[in-house]
Specification:
about 140 residues; about 70% helix; disordered N terminus; mainly alpha
Length: about 140
């Protein structure tokens, strides 16, 4: 199964597990854990409650990835709003290349012979990379 098909299936599985993840109504303001690269407390609690179940862990990771994507998009828009036209072009190109890198790098983590942990690792790669990029872009606004 291709990585993209897997991500789509994982997203559907996350929707089934998502009720286990508390939603305070405003994902853009979830409290982040600084020592955890900006991942939310909700994510930590969800993972603690997963009891090592692959399906539950993937659900937690997918839910957090959605929140981190919102965070990344906000940081990107904030930075873009403060740049000159030339710098905007540079950031757009850098972001396009970063998106390609994230996709390729995290696809590598999904080893078809790696068992269920390969799925967890691939999803964690995507989530962690997204959180790290959001943190990086947020740093440009400080």
């Amino acid at each position: 199964m291709s990585f993209l098909k897997y991500v789509a299936i994982a997203g559907l599985m996350a929707a089934a597990v998502a009720p286990a993840v508390a939603d305070d109504g405003d994902k853009a303001t979830q409290e982040q854990l600084p020592e955890n690269n900006g991942l939310s407390q909700t994510f930590s609690a969800c993972m603690d409650q997963s009891n090592g179940s692959t399906l539950s862990m993937i659900g937690c990771i997918e839910a957090e990835t959605g929140w981190q994507d919102v965070r990344l998009n906000k940081a990107y828009k904030d930075v873009m709003g403060s740049l000159t036209p030339e710098r905007k072009k540079q950031l757009q190109e850098a972001q396009r290349l970063w998106l390609k890198y994230r996709k390729a790098n995290c696809a590598f983590y999904y080893d078809p012979e790696g068992g269920s942990i390969a799925r967890v690792n691939a999803n964690d790669c995507f989530m962690s990379a997204t959180a790290a990029r959001a943190k990086e872009l947020e740093g440009f606004k400080q």
